[in-house]
Design goal:
The complex is a heterodimer of chains A (295) and B (361). Chain A is globular, with a radius of gyration of 25 Å. Chain A is built from 9 helices and 4 strands, in the order H-H-H-E-E-H-H-H-H-H-E-E-H. In chain A, helix 3 runs antiparallel to helix 4. Chain B is α+β, with helices and mostly antiparallel strands and 361 residues long. In chain B, the strands form 4 sheets. In chain B, strands 1-3-4-8-11-10-9-12-7-6 form a 10-stranded mixed beta sheet. The longest helix of chain B is centred in the first third of the chain and has 23 residues. In chain B, 37% of the residues are buried. Classes of the chains: A mainly alpha (295), B alpha+beta (361).
Amino acid sequence: MDRFAKYHPLVNFFYFALVIAFSMALRHPVSQGISLLCAVCYAAQTEGKRAVLFSLKWCLPIMLLTALMNPAFSHEGVTILLYFPTGNPLTLESILYGLSAGVLLSTVMLWFLSFNRVITSDKFIYLFGRIIPAMSLVLSMTLRFIPKCKAQLELTVDAQKSIGRDMTQGSLLHRTKLAVTVLSIMVTWTLENAIESADSMKSRGYGLKGRTAFSIYRFDERDKLALLFLTFCGFYLLCGMLVSAFGFRYFPSIRYVGLNTVTLSFQFVYLILCMMPVVLNGAEERKWKAIHSKM
Amino acid sequence: MKRFFTLILTLSLLFSLCACQGNFSKADLKEPIAIGEDGTVAQQLLTQIKEENAICVFTGESNGLHYEWTVFGSDISAPTEINLGLQVTKTAEGDIQLTLLQPKAFGFSAPLSVFLDTEWTAQSATAYDGDKAVAAVSLTGSKTTVLNLTLDGSVGTLVIRPDPLPQSDGAEDSSVSDTSGDPAADADTSATPENSDGKDKYHTDPIPEGKPKPAEPEDQEVNTATAYTCTFSIECSTILNNLPQLDEDKLEMVPSGGVILPATTVTFYEGESVFDVLQRVCRENGIHMESSWTPMYNSAYIEGIHNLYEFDCGSLSGWMYRVNGWYPNYGCSRYQLQDGDTVEWRYTCDLGNDVGGKNLF
């Protein structure tokens, strides 16, 4: 049950734009931790087991990989731990920077996992169809393309199998030949499909002036409040960035802004911004259960 | 509900304003401060420099010559009122005489740069108090010479005299004939045929007459049985004269006086290149150094020493090396050291023009 996804698309999009932008801009470990925690919480709340599996299977290795890869290429930093065979130093700062980059990468990946589910292509078209018609159509077509292509591939492989071209048997050369045939079929289908979609949208007058699009979205009082809240959070965090309340520097030595009342207030606002959908969904569930028990 | 939001909004504004005020209440130490007529600097200002751990530049002028003090907050132990006034005069012999208005020692090491209106041909100079040498002076500057020295407790009148050039031509010739007598060196010269444009296969312009030819690192064998010594130093005094250009995060990496490694005698083995020795010296002294191998020039490229990297002080900055007063026009892995060589690693902020390597680019 995702109540946040039922808000107006503008609210949804604004939320993700803010959260993803701040996740990339704020390099303070506390902010990074907040963002990662909230991304995991939200994904786990709406996707359940799948999100946890995703974070374990993809995010953890990415974090470790970047933490190991960064010091192999960057040797800046004052704390020299040991020396590589090339004579360049391995520094603590570059390891920590790599770790931070890994956390950033997996946080943004997790946010996009939720983004893809909440901002469906109809919401995207609704938001951007009038401002950037061509771009939003291309985007939603591209996003739709991957699952569509996967289904068509399965269909093609099955059809080929039924006429005696089984890709799973035979010599390597034979199998490669069949695979190339399937690839050629797929490429043809893709091109044809793209042209067909474009033609069909054109024939419907997509993107023409004065043309309206059907939508079931209403901008309610709760959306207004949510938007106001998001604007306030965005403004407050921007102020925080301007006074460098999130300051954290890795090179050449680690220097950071300590946690005091002012900086903590910025971190707290960031936390409630990131936690917004989780809190909304939790409140909704509690309300539902409360009604249920009264009956 | 709306009232609640307005309340939060005003509170947030107040918060951010409070945070802003903290930043603007103090005097700006990033801009150079002009020294007044009498040269005195208040104790309060030094206290502020110490508290902010800032690097502050004081500028003054005497007899038409500009001079700069670079005061490091980390060096000041007890702030007192000091006098940074200076009288710069040229003596009849062409030396520079400095008369400090400060009656007693500063209590901290004070790097001083004097901008001359002429160019000195010397590679380095020394400051003398009477007959006693008190400080080594490094020379920078592109068209006119800048004298950089650090005064540690010496006051009164100092005379800066250029040092004689490190080696006469005759001595260099003999060292070259030494290497050409070596069969390995002969093989090198035959192995690197010159291209039609006069460059060798690693894009090196012809080596000036009397200077050692590059020796390819892959042909060199280090003979640990024969140990030699050379003088090694690493300095970045040009940064002190270009502080506004320096990446702010790197300010703390600039050593006071601009000297990372003072001239040190180091032992090396026959067949080792400048790069080999630099790597070992940095490692032994705990100095950070990053290099990358460049196959095009068949040499290592020094990206940064002491966390001061190329491009950190303007787009024309980086590390250069000088052996016996000459900036080789090839990489440091290809320069084979001889016994008694003097190697200087210097940071340039102007493609070498400010450290006496103007003929290179």
